[in-house]
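Board work, copied verbatim: Sulfate ABC transporter permease subunit CysW
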Amino acid sequence: MTIAKPPLTKKKSWVPTALILVTILYLGLVLIIPAANVFYQAFASGLGPFLKNLQEKEFLHAAWMTLMLALVTVPINTVFGLCAAWAIARHHFPGRALLLSIIDLPFSVSPVVAGLMLVLLYGRNGWLGPWLQEADIRIIFAFPGMVLATAFVSLPFVAREVIPVLEEVGMDQDEAAQTLGASEWQTFWRVTLPNIRWGLLYGVLLTNARAMGEFGAVAVVSGNIGGKTQSLPLFVEEAYKNYATQSSYAAAVVLALLAVITLIFKEILERKTRRKLRNAQTALGE
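↓ predict structure ↓
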């Protein structure tokens, strides 16, 4: 006669629950509650005062300046990122790892230091200062300096998003197109670009988000002159320091909404990029 053993009961661990609670608590203290407070303060006096703050002359100029910075720097960094990604992912050459590290430099350098580097190069007492003064070209404390600072901090995103996609896709389809007589440009336009388009759009989206939200580097090179060289993040800080808290909160809400829109598009593009990579891997497997 055999005695049936009782079924083993797996003891439920408390660790996953504790980790989830810690994560929620941390996000609440660092992100969710502060963000919700900004929205509460912005609408504390009602929708009318909020909309009135968005019609202030300095706010409109700061919003316009932010838009112009994005319109100039995003296309430049998109073209650069594509060229850099193509060179790094499709070619092996001496110094490849060094070039990749240099592209990553804006991730590790403080934006304030980046702004200072530009001042030391293009400022009145910088290396190129005397020549720029002689040519009557103003970089620092003007829009060109703000463009340079924004381009520096948002430089790596397109390259960093496109490089892994190019490496995953491989060169088989490109080589097949060239075997059939396609030129390099036709191969890039009709084969490579459709394969990397979601990764490219993701990189462009991140570049745009960083360009619109940059504070430190732009603050150093712009001089933060209201109505002249003030972007939206600088306007938020300046309004808050001058006790115009409602204007500051209203502008912060606009920036936060831009970030939310960016997150929505980011999620959509991430899903499309993953699906595209899976399809490419399946096609190669077949």
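The chain has 14 helices and no strands.
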